[in-house]
Description:
- The protein has 175 residues and is an all-alpha fold.
- Helix content is 84%, strand content 0%.
Amino acid sequence: MALDKEYFDAIHIDVVKKKYYNANKVEAVFEDIRREAAALIQENERLRQELNARSSHREELRESVISAQAIYQRIIEKAQLRADAILSKARQESEEIRRNNEAQQDLAVKQLEACLSRVRQLQEAAIEEINTQWQNFLIGLYPEEEPDSDKVPADLSDKVGSIARELRAINRSDD
């Protein structure tokens, strides 16, 4: 039974009707009121304890959230530091690889230039050798006599020398 307006309206003490009252009935009504008041006091105390427990729980949750946020922030900072360290190391390794590649390329270019120079030298030597053999061949055709203008053209030697010079010029222009 709750102590509310309906409860008090339901109390009918016959004092007004009979000009007197029954002490037992009044005492019974007061006893009901005392019981209800005691029940309300107990419920109020229980609700206060529950409110305090919830407030305490709320404070614990707030502290837990603050602690979790602090842990989260530390984790983020550590992760950022770790990521920065990894990126820095990767950049250093990349730079080292780039320098090594450049050094290897420079070495390869020098070796290639040396090979090309050697090939050119061999080509020039081969051209000289061919020219010499050609000259010897021509001389061998007429070993004892002077070349006759009717038999060997006068400008044949000049033509062979000209061809050799042109081959050398072509070879040099390829450089």
